[in-house]
């Protein structure tokens, strides 16, 4: 029996995406292009009649703004919103604020890709109290410990229990759920949904600003599984081009 509809939306282009900087938990705004991507995402939701009943977003403004713009364009600006740090981007440790191409040139391809896409090797930790650290940020005051770096496995560990305990309940109740989040937090969720191995997830990149729809059913184990494995991008051509652009970051 099919149940809720899930829509995953990576935020539109941010200022640091445009500057090719590692971003992680640094709270940067959208560019004009990113604002346009948010609008287009909302139009796609409307055109495909995928109208969210509830929004889950990270605590970072690039995801929050993208959601606001998209929902406005889809005439769903009024739906309830749940914000949670567990949807935040992967914390990029001491790489936050560093240029990707320069980092690749300085440390070599292998180390660069290990930090960017390995499942369980985190970048070096950021020093607490420095410009791009979040250890004193009031929005994380409730956390036992604010991360100083994270690998994708760390994101899986914080995000999947939240998915199972909270977001899944809305989907099992038949709702259409929009999640606006980030390249790596969405990779963690897609890995879980599609059962992608620790090795293969390295090759999966999520484009900015294009809704990815999953139709879900409740499996024998009581967990949600996709009827359309891999999901369905509402603009597949733009998604393929966008994913290729993410994969090649560091080349410029
Ligand atoms: O910098 C970041 O936080 C992420 C997403 O933009 O980058 P990457 O795709 O290199 O993991």
Automatic annotation (TrEMBL):
Q: Does the keyword Heme apply?
A: no
EC code(s) of this entry: 5.4.2.11
One GO biological process term = glycolytic process
Q: Which residues form the active site?
A: 11, 89
Q: Which positions does UniProt annotate for substrate binding? A: 10-17, 23-24, 62, 89-92, 100, 116-117, 183-184
MF terms in GO: phosphoglycerate mutase activity
List the InterPro entries hit by this protein, alphabetically: His_Pase_superF_clade-1, His_PPase_superfam, PG/BPGM_mutase_AS, Phosphogly_mut1
Going by the UniProt record, its keywords in alphabetical order are:
Gluconeogenesis, Glycolysis, Isomerase
Q: Which family does it belong to?
A: Belongs to the phosphoglycerate mutase family. BPG-dependent PGAM subfamily.
Instruction: Write down what this protein is called.
Output: 2,3-bisphosphoglycerate-dependent phosphoglycerate mutase
